[in-house]
Amino acid sequence: DTGVSQNPRHKITKRGQNVTFRCDPISEHNRLYWYRQTLGQGPEFLTYFQNEAQLEKSRLLSDRFSAERPKGSFSTLEIQRTEQGDSAMYLCASRGTGNTGELFFGEGSRLTVL
Amino acid sequence: GEDVEQSLFLSVREGDSSVINCTYTDSSSTYLYWYKQEPGAGLQLLTYIFSNMDMKQDQRLTVLLNKKDKHLSLRIADTQTGDSAIYFCAASGGYNKLIFGAGTRLAVHP
What we know:
- The structure holds two protein chains of two kinds.
- By secondary structure, chain A is mostly beta strands.
- Chain A is built from no helices and eleven strands.
- In chain A, about 0% of the residues lie in helices and about 50% in strands.
- In chain A, a hairpin with an 8-residue loop joins strand 9 (about 90-95) and strand 10 (about 105).
- Chain A is globular and about 40 Å long.
- In chain B, the strands form two sheets. In chain B, strands 2, 4, 5, 9, 10 and 11 form a six-stranded mixed beta sheet that branches. Chain B has a five-stranded antiparallel beta sheet with strand order 1-3-8-7-6, with no helix packed on it.
- Chains A and B meet through strand 4, strand 5, strand 9 and strand 10 of A and strand 4, strand 5, strand 9 and strand 10 of B.
């Protein structure tokens, strides 16, 4: 049984560089979420996919951020021209079709922008 | 939109009960959740409660829901050092997403 997998776990980059994170959800889950968590805060919603369709994007997701889920399985989150304020933990979660709505989270990808 | 608030810190003695409180704003939240996060890790679902329930018990965990006051609590009986972590309350916020509080850091001391 594999849970939600995220790669890389840690990424250190210089300001202005592009970074990409990957999320592999639980295989039978059709819904996938990206959240951002900064130190001392709870996770903040970024975006949501149902299968390959991106159904909602938060205002936190500026034009420099793009997320895809091309075949309805894994997803990528790309941040272009990174800024120091982008430093955070990026969490991916997935959910099946059951009614209880709980999300299953990966271990997260920590981004540090120097 | 939905807003979820929690107290930020709780310190308890090992063996005592811990009670973590949460308030939320959207009365239409169908389910409410408690997650646990240990240092450097993702979030682990502890338990959830359906909005038409008042109480749910799961081993050492008891969830109480006061829907009228939009107040949720998590009680951990016989708190152990392994329970030291950050606990997040979450409510459903539309489009199936969850809205999280800022988290309550639980410190358990001998």
